[in-house]
Design brief:
The chain is an all-alpha fold. The protein contains nine helices and no strands.
Length: 248
């Protein structure tokens, strides 16, 4: 297993040397980049908003139900909701969800191109297929993911505000004070930095698994599954490392 993992990592590194090269035609590259930003990033906005609203509401409810000590100020609900969203959910958990949506999309799309011999046709014509297909996907998703992170943070807090507004669990004034109390701007940048790293992991790993598919439709499905699993594991590993490095 260790030897197989080392071989896979080496193959992945060689794959990246093909991907990160100057495009042959910059106008075609920029058209592909805009298309991938819209397909992988903009199309993910509704999913991010819906999930963030509900998770923010659930976090607010959980904090309200569990912070019952008279020694803990009532505004701690808003403060805890904000910290959970900024530090972990809007970066790590959201990217784990996007690994399922975006990662499987990339792996299955490139895998289908491989099994239908479209990639082979590009290579016969002298086109760097890895660079032509994969680079716009990696850059497009990585460039747009900070927008998804900020939207997740905002709508998560809005979800908590709905609980304060439409229930009697806590007042809106208390919640608003809590989400402003002891605010640390670095936590926002910390979340954005993590999402950029996670977006690179999702897009590059998914493209790698899709690019080297062998067989037919069944293998494309397996590659999509493997891409999501590998991306999720690497995201969790990177989360630990980045947290140690950025929050010392």
């Amino acid at each position: 297993m260790i030897v197989s993992s080392i071989k896979t990592f080496g193959k992945y590194c060689m794959f990246l040397t093909q991907v990160f090269r100057a495009p042959d035609k910059w106008n075609v590259f920029f058209k592909s980049l805009i298309f991938e930003i819209y397909k992988l990033g903009v199309d993910s906005i509704p999913l991010v908003i819906i999930i963030s609203l509900f998770i923010g509401a659930v976090i607010c409810i959980q904090m309200t139900l569990n912070i019952v000590s008279p020694l803990i100020p009532s505004y701690s609900t808003g403060l805890a909701t904000r910290e959970i969203l900024l530090l972990e959910f809007s970066s790590s958990m959201m990217c784990l969800i996007l690994a399922g949506k975006v990662g499987s999309n990339i792996a299955s799309e490139i895998g289908t191109m491989r099994v239908t011999e479209q990639i082979d046709a590009m290579e016969i014509m002298g086109v760097n297929s890895a660079n032509f297909i994969v680079l716009p996907k990696i850059l497009g998703f990585t460039l747009f993911v900070p927008v998804l992170c900020v939207l997740s943070m905002f709508f998560g807090l809005v979800g908590g505000w709905f609980i304060a507004q439409f229930t009697s669990m806590l007042t809106v004034e208390t919640y608003n004070y809590g989400i402003q109390a002891f605010f640390t701007e670095w936590y926002v940048w910390y979340g954005i930095i993590k999402t950029i790293v996670f977006a690179y992991i999702i897009s590059s790993v998914a493209a790698f698994y899709g690019y080297y598919v062998k067989g037919g439709a069944l293998e494309v499905g397996k590659a999509s599954t493997n891409a999501v699993v590998a991306s999720s594991i690497l995201i969790l590993l990177a989360d630990v490392i980045l947290t140690k490095l950025l929050l010392q």
